[in-house]
Amino acid sequence: MSWIPFKIGQPKKQIVPKTVERDFEREYGKLQQLEEQTRKLQKDMKKSTDADLAMSKSAVKISLDLLSNPLCEQDQDLLSMVTALDTAMKRMDAFNQEKVNQIQKTVIEPLKKRNQLFWSWVTSEWPQSHELPGLHSQIPGTGLWLAW
Fold it and tell me: Which H helix or E strand runs over 97?
């Protein structure tokens, strides 16, 4: 019977199989990609709503400038058309404001909240509350924990 104190040359037994590790890395990559895409969507929606508001404000300003034009005072037909245009632009601005408010409530804020809640959960100090201490390790540089 031979006794080898450090078992030199024998492969270490892996606690987590390579397939599980690869699956975990793939899923983590998908989560990072999802986070990137939701941030991009949130940023694009914000740009879109800002552009909508700027466009409707510009249209209202143009219609007000047309109303104050001296030509409108001289021609009644032109004045009535510009007044109708001004009314339509003000209504469009009001509808646009409501649309932007709805987008803010239904898209932008939920995306922001989802990112904050989800990633705060993923990066929390999970192992401290885990029932089996010692059966986990932190993935370097990510703040995530791997348990088995």
Answer: helix 76-103
